[in-house]
Amino acid sequence: MNSAGLIAASVRLLNLPARTPGRNELLRLQAAGWVLFASFDAAYFQLQSPINAAIVTLPYSVISWASLLTAVHRVHDHSVAWALAPTAVWTALAAPLSVAQACHNRDPFWLGH
Do 101 and 53 form a contact (C-beta atoms < 8 A)? Predict the structure, then answer.
């Protein structure tokens, strides 16, 4: 659901006029978010690192909320905002959870085997 919302928001955003206030800013935020999203699997699962997961999840959360706020306050497009909202809500849970997991689990990547 999160990825579908992000794709829907991006398609709607790309179809807005190029001079729409906040459009380019939001496109940059979404690009950065997709890079972090794509890196999560390698950072966490492949490297077996809950610390890496937190390192990726925290900025992804910030970007998700910045995207939502930009959609509302700069782009003034509620369709884009509603499409971004599930990811922002999810990261409100995922960010503190990733920090707790990093604090309470062994990390072979950073702390050795």
Answer: yes
Supply the pTM of this predicted model.
0.94
The helix (H) or strand (E) run that includes residue 91 is helix 78-104
Residues 6+ apart with CB under 8 A from 57: 40, 91, 94, 95, 98
pLDDT in tens, 36-58: 999 999 999 999 999 999 999 99
Give every CB contact of residue 56 below 8 A, 6+ residues apart in sequence. Answer: 36, 39, 40, 43, 44
Angle at 67 between CA 49 and CA 75, to 5 degrees: 170
Query: By the 8 A CB rule, do 78 and 13 touch?
Result: no
